[in-house]
Design a protein that fits this description.
Elements: H1 24-29, H2 35-38, H3 41-55, H4 57-75, H5 95-107, H6 111-136, E1 143-147, E2 153-156, H7 159-170, H8 172-175, H9 177-181, H10 187-193, H11 198-224, H12 230-253
Antiparallel strand pairs: 1-2
Length: about 250
């Protein structure tokens, strides 16, 4: 209220949200940071949720309602592609939902194929995300912004070009593995280049201490909860995983 003069407001101004014309197709399918090309676990998770919904509709139907509302809200923003960052980060609050759907999909696979599928798909998803984090944020993969304010125009690549760009960067894994695995401006990058800003050292140490404290406190709380209150354990573990996932990024990108 002190900053913007209202209790509920959009700090970017009244034109930032357009509830009447959500950009659903770009948000879902655009190679310029659309959720399906840039976070394919989304599709696998939705398939898994459909499979789980056949057995437990009372659990899955509310999750789908939440997911649909999140898609609508994110597609109603002018910069649905996430501005200058990783677009699907606006779905980070739905990580637990994606994990549930993905686990349900793996569980639906026959026993003899379940482990190979989990290992192979996991490696592919990790490589896909790593390449996009390494090269895609700088608009080398998928497309680019033509203009931000006021038009918010962008350029897409075709899926064929998008796939070729991903495969081309796979060559760096063998030609320059150090450059492939070390993120620019990460703590490890600073170690190798002997350039450690004071603020980054402080942030890194504080983050590590915080995560250690969260793990110890979380374990203590989980052990104190009785087995009969399984829902409370699930909620606590989910919360801890979300805290760890959102903070551990500081270590790699401090």
């Amino acid at each position: 209220f002190t900053l913007f003069g209202d209790w509920i407001t959009i700090p970017y101004g009244p034109l930032y949200m357009d509830w009447r014309s959500p950009l659903l197709l770009p948000l879902l399918f655009s190679t310029f940071r659309g959720i399906l090309p840039w976070m394919p676990i989304f599709l696998l998770s939705v398939i898994g949720l459909f499979l789980l919904g056949r057995r437990k509709p009372r659990l899955v139907v509310p999750l789908f309602i939440v997911l649909i509302l999140v898609i609508y809200v994110n597609s109603s923003t002018r910069d649905w592609f996430g501005g200058g960052g990783y677009g699907p980060r606006r779905f980070s609050e739905q990580v637990i939902l994606f994990v549930l759907g993905y686990a349900s999909l793996i569980q639906s696979i026959p026993d003899r194929l379940r482990k190979p599928f989990a290992v192979i798909s996991g490696l592919v998803l990790i490589l896909h995300q790593w390449i996009l984090l390494q090269y895609g944020i700088e608009e080398q993969i998928g497309g680019r912004v033509v203009a931000m304010y006021p038009s918010f125009e962008w350029v897409d690549q075709t899926y064929a070009v998008f796939g070729w760009q991903l495969l081309r960067h796979m060559g760096d894994l063998f030609q320059a593995p150090a450059d492939f695995f070390i993120l620019k401006l990460s703590p490890l990058d600073h170690v190798l280049s002997n350039s450690w800003p004071t603020m980054q050292i402080t942030t890194l140490i504080a983050t590590i201490l915080f995560l250690v404290a969260v793990i110890f406190v979380g374990r203590a709380l989980i052990h104190r909860i009785k087995a009969s209150k399984r829902w409370l354990r699930v909620a606590l573990v989910s919360g801890l995983l979300l805290i760890l996932a959102t903070n551990i990024w500081v270590i790699f990108r401090a």
